[in-house]
Design a protein that fits this description.
Elements lengths: L7 E4 L6 H14 L2 E4 L9 H10 L2 E4 L8 H14 L3 E11 L2 H5 L7 H12 L12 E8 L6 E12 L3 E12 L5 H16 L4 E2 L1 H7 L9 H12 L6
Parallel strand pairs: 1-2, 2-3, 3-8, 4-5
Antiparallel strand pairs: 4-6, 6-7
Helix pairs in contact: 7-8
This protein binds nicotinamide-adenine-dinucleotide.
The site of nicotinamide-adenine-dinucleotide (NAD) has 19 residues, from helix 4.
Length: about 240
């Protein structure tokens, strides 16, 4: 890594690669290069690793990248729409199917625990005043359908109550090409990491993590995370 002259290391390992992800985080620390953790092994959002990157003066953004327009961002925005319109959200699910290697890998139940946690918390975090009971929220990769190949389909259902306790529900089907969907987002994350390197700023970059990642160390609404990230880019915020 040192020989390559790289400034930033991107981690895109398969879901559940706990040891390998930590191994590469260690490599970034040793090589003194920035680290962007795009998958759901909790590194930036773990106090232990955050402190280590802080001490070594190396910037880190994580964990688990959001796609440009994927099920997570749609679900978060709709959750905030319910809140803004005073609709009481009572139950919700987000079921995702796909036919690529990532979905095949996620058939392994033990590997998928952190992915579920990351995706569920990404929506729960938007319900600060009224988090849903565990049994009323179900979010995660649901099945591998070989012929879908790289086409990911997300099904979202949200059930709520309007004024006068009147029930309503919303159903949505999202279809996207999965692999390139996080590419543009990660390029912006690389730019933020490079800014931190140029400014000699190490440790967790809280604003870009909140804007680009599903499971950041600090969660905000997407509007707020966007504003904080703009402030970071303009040098009005350290992290
Ligand atoms: N839209 C997206 O692309 C997106 C969005 C959010 C999160 N992610 C996460 O990014 C990760 C990668 O997704 P993917 O679809 O590219 O998966 P993938 O299975 O297609 O690719 C994983 C790659 O990691 C390599 N690999 C496995 N073990 C390794 C090791 N020990 N050292 C070096 N390389 C190793 C494999 O050879 C493979 O090329 C997943 O954890 C996924 O959940 C992707």
């Amino acid at each position: 890594m040192k020989d390559s002259g790289a400034h930033v290391l991107l981690n895109y390992l398969p879901v559940g690669s706990e040891n390998a992800a930590k191994f590469y985080a260690e490599c970034a620390l040793n090589a003194g290069i920035g680290f962007i953790n795009n998958m759901p092994v909790f590194i930036a959002s773990s106090p232990e690793w955050g402190t280590r990157f802080e001490k070594e003066g190396i910037p880190i953004i994580g964990d688990d990248i959001k796609s440009q327009l994927g099920a997570t961002i749609v679900h978060r925005v709709l959750t905030n729409l319910f809140k803004a319109r005073g609709v009481k959200l009572e139950r919700t699910y987000q079921l995702n199917t796909g036919g690529n290697t990532d979905f095949l890998n996620m058939l392994n139940r033990s590997r998928v625990i952190s992915k579920r946690e990351s995706k569920t918390e990404s929506v729960q975090s938007q319900l600060v005043e009224r988090r849903l009971e565990k049994e009323n929220i179900h979010i995660g990769p649901s099945d591998w359908v070989a012929w879908q190949k790289d086409n990911k389909i997300g099904f979202i259902r949200m059930e709520g109550r309007l004024f006068g306790d009147v029930p309503m529900n919303l159903e949505l089907r999202l279809s996207v090409e999965d692999s390139p969907n996080s590419g543009g987002v990660v390029i912006d994350a690389i730019r933020c990491c490079r800014l931190a390197l140029e400014r000699g700023k190490g440790g967790i970059l809280y604003s870009p993590s909140a804007y680009f990642m599903k499971h950041p160390p600090r969660q905000y609404t997407d509007d707020k995370a966007f504003r904080l990230t703009e402030d970071f880019i303009q040098g009005k915020r350290d992290d």
